[in-house]
Amino acid sequence: TVSVTGKRLRPHLLQSIVDLSVCHKHGEKEKLFCEEDQRLLCGSCSLSPGHKDHRVLPLKMAADKCRAKLQETWDILYQKEEEFKIALDRLRSREELCEEIIYSLSQTITSEYRKIHEFLQEEEELYLERLAQEYTDNLAKLELNKAKISQQIQNLQRMKLEVEENLEKASLEMLQDMKDALERHEELLLQEPDIASLAWTISPITGLREMLMKFQRHISLDPGSAHPHLILSEDLKSVKYGDVPQDLPDNQQTFDYAPAVLGIQTFTSGRHYWEVKVGDKTEWEVGICRDSIRRKGKLSSLSEDIWTLVSFTSGNDCFLWNSQDGFLLGEPLEKVGIFLDYDKRHIAFYDATNGSLICNFSDMPFEGPLRPYFSPCCFYAESTPGSIVIINMGDSE
Description:
This protein is α+β, with helices and mostly antiparallel strands. It has six helices and 16 strands. A hairpin with a 2-residue loop joins strand 9 (306-314) and strand 10 (317-322).
């Protein structure tokens, strides 16, 4: 309003006080100014009813008042302008500082990752050196085992010859010599072939599980694919084998032979990771399969439609099996991590407890959607009952 008042008043201020305009109605000089109507008035006009309640001032006083307001406004504008100039200078300083900070942070991050790379490289080299030493030790163990078995074969061959010689002797001589011969070789007859087992140290890989967890997916079981003997939890996160088959509608999506169930999720690209808790179960099978996997009839683990890790026991030994590496003697697992890189056609299985690699599949012939595969396997006398449970991020383990 102050600036508007100044604009309207300016034409009048250009006129000299001496050269005042004359009221065309009363013929008097217009020496007064009405602030409400923003116009010059003569004395008679100021007394008219139209200006009775208006603020009317002498022209010079109104001009001085307006000038003071305009000056005050100019001072405020000047101060504001200076504040914004200072702010602009600060922004320019921060812009320079931003360049310095990004350079410094980039150098720091690069340095830290370089240290991690160097550490991991050293760890990798030590791991490979340990494996090379274990390879040498295993070969030496096998050589000693071969030598021992070869010696046992020679001893058996000598005993065979001695027995053959006794068989050719006369009856009395054969009877007299047989007892001594059998006593001398009694220990040899009791020996069994002893095949050395290979010892490999599988170590955790630093930061591996943390990296894999970035690709974790929430997986749920698909009830429509479950074998009738399988019992799924209400939250569709765990499955176990039941003795009595459930009365379920038979459809083309249901497994009728393999005790298996699929995950609801399908994958056609990208990287995905999930974990399965198997606990103390001795028999289980987890992995990935094609969405088009055969659901009816017997399903072979050698099928090109499935990539799984299978656990089973034989006596006191725990074995892991996959179609690429065959049988592996190992310690029982509690949690299994499964990683799929669809675009790179890669599948890997991990011990999710300590972050070590169990096995992987590369250059797999992926075609079409893939789905998680789960099987608690059939329960029998030597196996351990229980559920296999999908562990999602945030779940209690």
